Amino acid sequence: MTLRLYDTATAAVRDFEPVHPGKVGIYHCGLTVQGAPHVGHIYKEVVFDVLRRWLERSGYDVTVIANVTDIEDKILAKSADRGVPWWAHAYEFERELHWAYDVLGCRPPTYEPRATGHIPEMIELIEQLIADGHAYVAPDGSGDVYFDVKSWPTYGALSHQKIDDMEAAEDADPRGKRDPRDFALWKGWTEATPRTASWPAPWGRGRPGWHIECSAMAGKYLGEEFDIHGGGLDLRFPHHENELAQSTAVGQKFARFWMHNALVTTAGEKMSKSMGNSAVVRNVVERVRPIELRYYLVQSHYRSVVEFSFEALDEAAKSFQRIDGFITRAVEVTGGVEPADELPAEFETAMDDDLGTPAAIAVLHNTVRDGNKLVADGDSVLLRETLASVRGMLGVLGLDPLAEPWVSRTGGSDELTEVVDGLVKALLEQRQSARERKDFAAADAVRDRLKALGVVVEDTPQGPRWSLASTDEGS
């Protein structure tokens, strides 16, 4: 089956054909590093990480560009409130973003350009837009430059709107505009902001508008036409609409596909810092393992809204623990196998159908169920094949606990892990001796003591096996 993806611009699922055979270029909008990322932010990173893994599994050479917006009005306002330089504020939360990438097993982009590192490219693009009659310098002497939306007849094509039906944003600054719907390409410097947050330009010192940065950076690193432009659905308008207008107005073909993941909501409303309902990634992974949070996000289709709750998160964690438990038992029996090169046809069909992770995970769970039946019979070729298949599918989803980065995260030093394992095994030997002499009260007392410490004991044909309880089981 050919990979098919939903394209926002055409509002249809289409066959994916790359600009250059065998190669895929992806640009997805990174964060404005104004604060610590919450689950809603990181959802996009997980979605496009899975897309990248599936494309590479399908044989493509993939280049991923994800920008960092490190100069923007919110950054200036929040840094001023904290009394720190804007650039220090931005860098602090850029590092927090990288931590969140890593903790959820997202591979870093091929390149991650910063907005402040590409001011010359933005100025060049703005100059071309002015020369072609699609942008103008505000006549009020402010140094602002605006894109003239009425100069571009197809403005609104991505969001399927007509210009005459659009209204200016309530918080839009109207100064110097010909039309209230025109948007800023360049913001002239004023004494209300630090001079360090401005750069010289032909029309006066200032800083770039939000939208121009992505047009400049996507074109620089992926060329005038590339395969996929992505981001959260909330970016479709005005951000991506404005990008498309700027880039096509200077003659670029820009993106062949526009992919937008749905939002993460809480109580039916978009997760955001301003609403005070955000679940910061650093806090959430104190409740469940990072791999379980990733599973929670992957199990939904990327175009379906994720209603975040800790109850749903805990249920997802238990679901993943069943997969994890099978892998542990199967490795104990077989000694371990490498991930399979060939995956179940139903899994591949699901992933080729607009990245259908819910159907793909259903195949995964069915395979695990069949594998659990095989474990009791001991080592076999079929069990090894099943384990390899499960690992292969998990690898596509970034969830294989025996692969990096998860395999390196033991929760402590190797020495400490070895000591704890030895102590637990010693207690289990005492429990087994009590059972053999039919002192079941003593045996149960050992098991209860371990359970109180958060250690779950499972009796298997190969002997007792222990694991750490999930957070809610251990509380």
From TrEMBL:
Keywords: Aminoacyl-tRNA synthetase, ATP-binding, Cytoplasm, Ligase, Metal-binding, Nucleotide-binding, Protein biosynthesis, Zinc. Zn(2+) binds at residues 29, 214, 239, 243. It is an enzyme of class 6 (ligase). ATP binds at residue 273. Residues 346-405 form the Cysteinyl-tRNA synthetase class Ia DALR domain. The keyword Zinc applies. Binds 1 zinc ion per subunit. GO terms for cellular component: cytosol. Its main location: cytoplasm. This is Cysteine--tRNA ligase. The lineage of its organism: Bacteria, Bacillati, Actinomycetota, Actinomycetes, Propionibacteriales. The gene is cysS.
